[in-house]
Every structure is written in structure tokens, then in C-alpha cells.
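Worked Example 4.2. Read the sequence first, then its C-alpha cells.
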Amino acid sequence: MAKAFFVNSGSEANDTQVKLVWYYNNALGRPNKKKFIARSKSYHGSTLIAASLSGLPALHQQFDLPAPFVLHTDCPHYWRYHLLGETEEDFATRLATNLENLILKEGPETIAAFIAEPVMGARGVIPPPATYFEKGSYVYDSNGKKYIGHVLGRRCRLAMF
């Protein structure tokens, strides 16, 4: 990595990612490519944009969120959301299919990016199925989308007694 962009918080980092993707698409003459897809049960921060990206109803209620440019897709928590008899591989395939269907329903020309934590941290440490990002990358790459991965879960506490 040749360059870094420093901000004060994860919320600010996610807001900046949205602005950079919008700027990029505007510069390329694609002003309609503004929608972001995030995952339900995810956490991206507490500012208006970051809270909209978050898939937690408590962050949406009473604030008129999520913003209209934010869409949510399935949470990749296999143990909670798999169907009876569904393998992890089948679960990952179903989620990739649902993601593709969402992109097609909204119109690929309107979707700017898919934002996701590599390991979800808002509800514990929840890794997705092994092939989740591989299957998903085919979906968003083939539809001309950008993937934004980020890590908010690097929290450390130091104390002296």
C-alpha cells in the first residue's frame, strides 16, 4: 500500500468510503451509480451514512434510516440463518444468489459498491462460510461493482493496575 488516508473513527472512514466511491463514479460519468449494499446484522458506525450501512434496526428506528441509497442483503451467519439440511457451501451459494438478485432487481447501473466486514464483529466474532467472498466476488465483479472490506473490530484496551 503506497498511500494511507487517516480519519478519526470507523464511522468517518465508512462515510469517506461512500464519498470516494461517489466521486469516482461521478468522475467517470456514472452519476446514477450511488447505491450501496451492506449486510443485515452488520455494524459500520454511528454517523448517518455509517448507521444507514449498518444492518441493525436499533440504529435505524427513530432516525428515518437507512438512507434510500442503502440496501441490505443477508447476514452470512451460517449457524443462525442456514436452512434445515443446508451445507455451508449451499448457504454461501444461496447468499451469493440473493446478492445477485438484489443487484439485478435494483439495476446494476445503480449499484456503486458492496461493503462488508471480512469477519463480522457487532454480534460476536462471526466468520462467513469459507467460500462466501469467493462466490460474492464473482457476483459483484461480473456486475461491475466494487467491494469495500473493512475492519472495525481491532479494539484494544490497555490498563495499568
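Now turn to a second chain, presented in exactly the same format:
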Amino acid sequence: MPADPAGPLGKAFALLDGFAAEGLFPGGVLQVTRRATVAGLHTVGLARREPPARVEPSTIFPLFSMTKPLVATLLLSAVEDGKLALEDPVARFLPGFEAHGKGGITVRHLLTHSAGIPVTPGPEILTFSSNAPFAATLNTLVPDTPPGTRAVYHGQTAFALLGAVFERAAGIPLSQGLRERVLDPLEMSSTYLPLPSEAEPRVASVYAHPSDREDERWAEAVNRPTFREAGHPAGGAYGTAGDLGRFLCCWLGEGALGVRRLLQPETVREALRIQLPGVREGMPLWPGVPSALREADLGPTTWGLGWRLRGDPPEPLFGFGAASPRAFGHAGLSCVLCWADPERALTFVLLTNGTLPMTPALRIRTVLSRAVVEAFA
């Protein structure tokens, strides 16, 4: 879909075209809404190389860790429904989890990445065909730090546990809860956890950039039916830019989109508050992070409940660009980023199907975010 060079988003869309032309990813989509109305949507490149298929507005992308805010929203709805509380110990729902000093870890600690268990004890989630056996392995974890004293991004562990907590508390599968409580009310008809076989023809394949040897296994995994069908709550959702725009607009509307209310305003305000003032954040222990950086201090943590806030000073990892300190969002692997800015009534959805090392991926997210904010300055 060609960009309108005369429109306010022309620069941002041209930048997206340029990144694709450089070969940084095969294809992608950027959608922006302003005041809950689509201000622009631009697609570029290929969803699949063989047989060639262009990216369309209806293309379904792997959301990677943008899955986490969807699951967090479901957890918050369960809190409103009285199924669980943020201060509930995880072991209340998952007997045996309290082993090795984890009895004090709560649902809130998992939602804020401050449980002290950021790294898996053995095989990664990619090797499991469903969440339950993976979550069960986490009973063996030994916390690095006491809960609530330090934040480090829990890439796989926290939301695997939260998925299991929801199922035990609500008595229904995570996929059913997400569909009934989040996706259907917002008419997110092209978002899935797990991905059904009938949606496969619309799904973009993921390709690792030659420079990104660390994430090759992710690119291979998310293209396999076993991963797509697993429904991992830490990163197994698939969806479209349009659906995610609706989701973000609901959060900008303090839990409501039009006449449909998903969450109460007080729940949204609590979720979009920095939860751990004064607590410091450490470098995520991602594969490929140089050992010299693994003990780095990233400054005060800006985690809300399932969402990252930009904060002031701004958080350094997601790429919010010039968005306001109240902006909130989440990144996925490489060039996947979604954010909303309450002060500017903007939402930003970037989905691509290529993996890159951390530094160029952060640059792309930041440059595009800045261009979108500047378009409406």
C-alpha cells in the first residue's frame, strides 16, 4: 500500500519502506490511530517469500511478546471478577511453586517482572508443545533476588506462570478466557492464541536476518505448526495491526471502546501506574547480551501491570521515541512494537516478519516512533 507523501505520516511510511528496501525485514505494516480513528496504515514488502505473497492489511503477524499485554488484560479482568487478587501468592494456584523460597512471589510480582526468576531452568518454551508442562518446570527455579526488590524482564517465565494461574483460578482454558473476555468484546476477530489452522494462509512467515544468529531458532519455531498451535502466553499470539489498534484504543479509553467496556477505569489507571517506584531495573538476560552488560543498571523501573511505561527519564529498551512520559506499550521480538500515548491520543502498531540483533531493532523502533509523534506535533 503506497504511502501518501503529502500526508502527515508520509515520512514515517517512507522510513518503513526504506528499512524494508535495506533488507532489514522482508515485510511489515505500520498503523497509527489518532483520537480512536485510523490516521494511516501502510504495508510494505513480502509476508512470505515462497510462494511470494505481499503484506496486506489483513496479514496476520506473530506478536511475540506483545502477547503479554493481552494476557495481562485477561488477568486484570479476572481480578475484577473476583477470581484472584494481585497480592495472591502464585503458590495458592500452583502447589509446589513455593519450593526454593518462592512462596512470597505474587501475581503482581509476575506482572511487573520483579519476581526474581527471569531465566528458565532448562529447555526454552520453544521446545514445549503447550504451556502446562513448561510452567510445571518452573517449580525448580531459585530466585536471583527477593520479590519486588529488582526488576529484570521475565521473557518466558512470568507469563507462562500467569497463564497457568488464570486457568486454575478461572477454571477455563486461557484461550477460551482470552476469546470471551478480550478478543470478542473488542471485535479482534483476526487475533489468536493459539493460531487455528484455518488462519494459516494469512500468516506472515518469519525470517532471520543474516546478522541475527541468536534469534534464528525463534524464526524457525514460530513458522512451525507445533508452536503456532501451542498458545504460549509469553509470546504465542498472532494478530493484525488493525486488531491491535483497537486493543490500544480501548486502553486509551480507560477500558472502553465505544459502548463496550472491557475493564473499569480504576483498573486501567492502576495498571498504567509505575508499580515499583524506587526499584532499579537490570539488563534483560537475553541470549546474545554481552557478558559485560549483564550486570548493567538500567535505572528506575517503569513497569506497570503488564505494560511498560515510557517514564521520565525514558526507559531505554523499547523505543518509544518522542512519546510522552505517560505513553505505555510493549515490544515483541526485533521490530514489533505497540504503544499508546494518552497525552497525544495516539496509538502506534509496528509489525514485521524479520528478526534483527537488539541494536538495529531498537533503532528502527525508535526512529519510526519519533517520526509518528513528530507528524502530529
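Notes for the reader: Residues 358-375 form the longest helix (18 residues). The chain has a mean pLDDT of 95.
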